[in-house]
Protein 1
Amino acid sequence: MFHDKVVLITGASSGIGAACAVAFAKSSASLTLVGRNSDNLNKVAKQCEKLNQLQPLTIVADITLETDLERITEETVNRYGKIDVLINNAGVNSISPTITPAEAFDTVMTTNLRGTYLLTSKITPYLAKTKGNIVNISSILSNKPLPMMTPYCMSKAALDMFTKCTALQLSPKGVRVNAVNPGPVKTELFRRGGMSDVDCERMFLGIEMNSPLKKITKGEDVAELVTFLASDRASCINGSCYVIDCGLLLGDASNL
Ligand SMILES: NC(=O)c1ccc[n+]([C@@H]2O[C@H](COP(=O)([O-])OP(=O)(O)OC[C@H]3O[C@@H](n4cnc5c(N)ncnc54)[C@H](OP(=O)(O)O)[C@@H]3O)[C@@H](O)[C@H]2O)c1
């Protein structure tokens, strides 16, 4: 499905981004994989190469640094000569029972929003040439307040609006922009955001029990939706934010 297409994925070294990398590799995409942890990035790249015999370009980079954003763009274009799809997936969380300290607030915003915004603006001219598309990895928390994760919720609400504004702005160039809004997925996100292993276990158990489908969305499920939106099969989908959460946002019918 992505034969001869160049797909750039940020945060490809872990969780949902790694699952997306594997899914695109299965569909024969040429990949640029971006992350900070080179060991993890190389592991994912090897997994992808086994699937389609195409060696991904790996770029160890921090999307909060403008010089790194420049490098991501240049190295991808130098290697492939074009970019067809941008998956803005890299993101962080910060979990705090009180008001989040300024430093953690800034980290969430500079990663989830500023880095994503600036990388998108650098990649857009190349997407215009290929009439490509962008998929932003947002969250159901863009629309569901959770006080322990206020900056994260704020960042994802802004990412949804970024998706819609950019879709409108880039439509004349033939570039589509969409978002995927997953419910909780078992990745490193919550532990890295400050949650203990025990609390993570308890949270996912509770979510599973309360989920209408009695299950939790997996990275592979999200990747399935992402690859669909990035494909030509979704050529009429633009500026949309797709929830994928096993029905969690619907709430518990037994409470009615
Ligand atoms: N897990 C969930 O429940 C869930 C639900 C909804 C949405 N999401 C969203 O899904 C996306 C992926 O998260 P995940 O759950 O897969 O978490 P994860 O396992 O912690 O992965 C996060 C990825 O983002 C990368 N990253 C973070 N900061 C970065 C930076 N400054 N520069 C470059 N890369 C950076 C990490 O790279 P390194 O590891 O190499 O540092 C890692 O590859 C995030 O946008 C998150 O908000 C997650």
Protein 2
Amino acid sequence: MVSASALTIIASTLVSQVVAHGYVPQIKIGSQYIPGWNVNTDGYTTPQPIRVVRATKPDSGFISDPSSGDITCSIGNSKLPPGPITATVAAGQTVTMLWNSWPIGHFGPVLNYLAKCPGECSSWKGDSGTPWFKIQQDVYANSEWASDTLAKNNATYVVKIPKNIAPGNYLLRHENLALHGGANLGGAQFYPVCVQLTITGGGSLNPSGLGFPGAYKATDPGIHFNPYQGEAANKAYIPPGGAVYPGLQF
Ligand SMILES: [Cu+2]
């Protein structure tokens, strides 16, 4: 016997997986809420609103090819002009990503990268060379994938900005990597979101080394991965993109 409420939960889970996986319509820095990218309205408004979160078009769907230009920041990243604004955050502070929702069961890690924009972020897509470096990752803890932890935490995730990186304009690449289909080659789903930041204070560290595209391959063991093998396999899982850049201070 399955209760009506259980059926409702199952039905709404299926709907959310088909219709909208989630997007980031708002971020928070300190006590300030800043509009992100609302896939339901921002892409259909003329003139297109200028946001600190880069647009994703046409929807909040996933990217399945990690060698695609979309892997940098979002679907359509390779075509869309970024908006010429940034959110200001001090080195050592946090940026909270407020997803509209995130489905339970999109098992996988949450990965976070920065890249320093050569001048203004608004004229830079970040999709060539190796300007990126990993600053934070949450993988699997207490028998739970980080994506489920994010979902249960009211679809929020807090990114810490390193204390000792050089001040300047940066892209923050925050990503849910969903592996519920990852047992099949090409079945992983990437949901990157980029935020244009101006980081103040800080130190003199200028890390780099990763490219998007470039850092991920479909055959990486952290991408072609079956998350249904049980606790031991999940604990041994190593996400793509390598370790957090050494020497960062938080
Ligand atoms: Cu999804």
Protein 3
Amino acid sequence: MTAKAKDFAEIYARFGASIASRHDCGRYCAPLNGGEPVCCTTGHAIPIVQKSEWKLLKGRTDLWSKFEPFDKTSREIVDDLHSSCKAIECKGAAFCERDNRTLACRAFPFFPYFNKKRELVGLGYYWSFEDRCWVLSNLASVEKEFVDEFLDAYELLFEKDDEELEAFVDESASMRRVFSRRKAPLPIIGRDGKLYKIMPKTKGKLVPAKPSDFKAYGAYKSPKAYRKAVREENGDPDAPFPPVVR
Ligand code: SF4
Ligand code: SF4
């Protein structure tokens, strides 16, 4: 059972909210990435879609094209893709069309998090982006409307596509392993839009959390760390330190 193009059209209609409408977060991470938002460049994140989603996008816009690998790592990513999936790339942030973003664009940096009982309890995140993505150091910036639409969209996807559900069950287990190795609280944005954490060795129990329970990462640790990271990337030396949302 897989989702069809018309299912993705409905998913897009349900899910258009910004993560944090008071923040243009792309401006915060772009100085660390040659002036482009981190999640909008294939050097950091290659959008992967189902072929049915690709069919929908092709019929709606010329924003997207097939992704051409540019190095060994990107070649391996493309070679390892399931036959039902395709790697694509857009024309870049300056040409973004909000209504024609992929589901992955809309959800980034989050994925649907399943507990060990396979219940969808909230939003987990792609931890490999912690050092660059401002949102992951400022989880309190994520708005309830985004969480509601995210869950609504993915619940429809899972009704139509059981393989997608299995993929996120696996991703959730990987996130648990990573945070358990770190001996750190695993952050979750719950279905009610509030912050939760799973402490190590508590069998996955979700407990309410405060933003200060989670540390800032990489460039977002301090103005000094941000300036240093921007300098290393030859970014805008006048870029101000992004807001801290607590
Ligand atoms: S979601 Fe994260 S990586 Fe994407 S634009 Fe916002 S801060 Fe940058
Ligand atoms: S479609 Fe928009 S949000 Fe998605 S990768 Fe391109 S520029 Fe970024």
